[in-house]
Each structure stands twice: as C-alpha cells, then as structure tokens.
Specification:
Elements (H helix, E strand, L loop, with lengths): L8 E6 L5 H10 L3 E7 L14 E2 L2 H6 L4 E4 L6 H10 L3 E5 L6 H14 L3 E4 L6 H11 L6 E9 L11 H17 L3 E9 L9 E8 L4 E7 L6 E8 L2 E6 L4 E7 L18 E6 L7 H13 L9 H20 L12
Parallel strand pairs: 1-2, 1-4, 2-3, 4-5, 5-6, 7-10
Antiparallel strand pairs: 7-11, 8-9, 9-10, 11-12, 12-13, 13-14
Helix pairs in contact: 3-4, 4-8, 5-6, 6-8
Length: 340
C-alpha cells in the first residue's frame, strides 16, 4: 500500500507504440503515481496519452522533472535512453529484453548499480497469476524434485516487431521465466531456428537446455502458428503443474505412484501414472498492472518483487547463447560474466 500522505511519484514514459500504449494506460491508473510526461519521436499513433504534450526525446522527458521512467522504445535504442536516464538519476523500468546484446546489457546494469538506482526489466510473464502461483508451489515443494520444464509460445507475427527476431522478442520470456520458476540458471543450450516469412531475422526456434540444477528444458517459440499458445509445464517427481498464461489458469496433475512404499517387489522403482487433477482458482489481475505496482513499491523502498537489471543481463547472455547455438549448430554454455 502506498502512503496517502506522501506526494505522488512523478513518472515519465518514453515510447508510445504497441507496448507503450499499455504502459500509459496503467501508469495513468496507478495509485500513488502521476504520469507527468510522455515522449516519442513519432508522436502518439494509438492515442494512448490524450491531453499530454508528446515530447520529442529522453532529454525533454528528464527536463519534466520525473522520479522514474518506463522505457518502451525499440530494443536497439534501449542503451542510449537507459544510460541517459541513469546519468540523470532517474529510476527506470526498461521493457524486455534489457538490451540488444551482452555488452550493452552489461553497460546498462553497471550504470544503475553504481548510481544506486532502482533498475528493472519488463518481463510481464513473471507477473501472470498462473506463474506466480506455480513458482510459489514449486518453492514449497509440491512437485518434489523438478525433472523438466517445457514451454510453448506460438502465434502469428506481431506488426509491432521491426528490429529483432523471435528469440529476442518472445523466447526471452521463456528463458527468463524458466530460470525464475526453477530458481536456477542455464548451464547449456542447443537451438535450431529458421526463417519462413521472408524476414531477415528468425521467426521460429526450438531450444533444448539444461539448468545448473540438472533440470532439462525445452522451448518451442514461433510467429508462424495460426493460433495463440502460451503454456508452461513443470514436471517433477510428485506430478506436473501446467500454466496457461493466456487464460491465467494453473492445473496440477498428481503422479499417483509417487509414493512407492507399499510396493514390495519394486520398492526401488518410482513409477508414474495419472492421478487426481486440480484446477486452481486464482485471482486474475492484469500482469502489467502488477508489474507497475511492484516497480512503484521498489522505488519507494517498500518491496523487491521486480526483475532486476542483473537478472535481465543474465537472460540476455542466455539469449545470445541460443542465437550462437542456432547459428553454429553446437551446444553452447552461456557466458557467466565476470561476476561468476
């Protein structure tokens, strides 16, 4: 909860495109926050900020006197905008991915950490009620040992994308949420990608991986399916949790044979068979609204439920390993960075 006696935080938004328009809507409705300025060199094509003067650049946004900013410009501009905001002492939430490549992500992360600023990355899937509940249940041991995590993120090509392929735009969600749900980083990845829509960048990828914990992973991601699918399946010794983030549904299917103590002749074998299924009732709040609340609270020093820039940096490293693997046809170990 925000303090009603405290002055509202002054927020700024740069980028009013397909994602920026949703940020504008949430910032305008966010308790304890005033959206005081917006900026976009191309204006406001979606009418996301009626009544606001659309400023031309990040310097004009800073001059408006903001406490924090949301950056929703194309990925190729993240570094310049984020570094300028850090230089000005502005707390910043940058849309995913943090940066175009590892060196840019390292530079951004270092700038915010050295300045003592709150810096976060906009991985909206982490705030989906199904995945929030999934992570909580896994951490409490509902599944026991985790064996495998698989994700499917498929659909048609989004008109908003012009500067990156499906790995940096979509698969980055799966790489981030998998490491977060399992609380373990990637130890290796092996990927295959293709280009079928005539674009320069890849539009379909299949990624096999292994986490440091030993859990194996698999991700199918594309812009070529005539249906939308967003599914995460975590399989463990006690059963499986299935998260559908389109509908914010979470289902548990128990392994009916998880307890083998009653077996005499096969006591050493842990069998698997379909058990009871439970579909959990979840409070369905908009993930982007939850993300904004978490960042506001972090700026106020009242919480830490954000995707830090260092976490975003680790995901960029994994993304680059995936692209290298697909390009070279080899298994790649993600760069652990100098802090490892």
């Amino acid at each position: 909860m925000t303090d009603p006696t405290r002055p509202s935080l002054r927020a700024g938004l740069i980028g009013l495109g397909m994602m920026g328009r949703h940020h504008a809507r949430n910032l305008r409705a966010l308790e304890g926050v005033d959206l005081v300025a917006v900026a976009d060199a191309y204006g406001d094509p979606h009418g996301a900020a009626p009544g606001y003067e659309v400023l031309p650049d990040v310097d004009a946004l800073i001059d408006a006197g903001i406490d924090y900013a949301v950056v929703a410009v194309p990925t190729q501009f993240h570094k310049d905008v984020a570094l300028r905001l850090a230089e000005a002492g502005v707390h910043t939430l940058v849309e995913k991915p943090l940066a175009f490549d590892i060196s840019e992500a390292e530079e951004i992360t270092a700038a915010y950490e050295e300045a003592g600023l709150v810096g976060a990355v906009g991985y909206i899937e982490r705030y989906n009620p199904a995945l929030q509940e999934m992570r909580r249940r896994i951490a409490e041991g509902q599944l026991g040992e985790i064996y495998q995590i698989t994700t499917r993120r498929q659909g048609g090509f989004p008109a908003r994308i012009a500067d990156v392929g499906v790995v940096k735009d979509l698969a980055t969600h799966d790489l981030d949420l998998t490491a977060w749900v399992a609380q373990s980083s990637y130890a290796q990845v092996a990927a295959t990608s293709t280009r079928r829509s005539g674009r320069e960048d890849e539009d379909m990828v299949s990624i096999a991986g292994r986490l440091a914990s030993g859990t194996i992973t698999n991700h199918l991601v594309n812009w070529l399916s005539p249906f939308k699918e967003r599914v995460t399946v975590v399989t463990g010794e006690n059963g499986a949790l299935i998260g559908d983030t389109v509908n914010a549904d979470l289902t548990f299917i128990a392994n009916a044979e998880a307890d083998t103590n009653h077996w005499d002749h096969m006591a050493s074998f842990r069998g698997v068979s379909e058990g009871d299924a439970i579909r959990y009732a979840l409070q369905r709040t908009e993930p982007l609204a939850t993300e904004h609340e978490a960042f506001r609270d972090a700026v106020l020093g009242q919480g830490s439920n954000i995707v830090t820039m260092r976490e975003g940096l680790h995901t960029v490293r994994t993304v680059e390993a995936v692209l290298e693997s697909a390009r070279e046809g080899t298994v790649v170990v993600p760069d652990p960075g100098p802090e490892a």
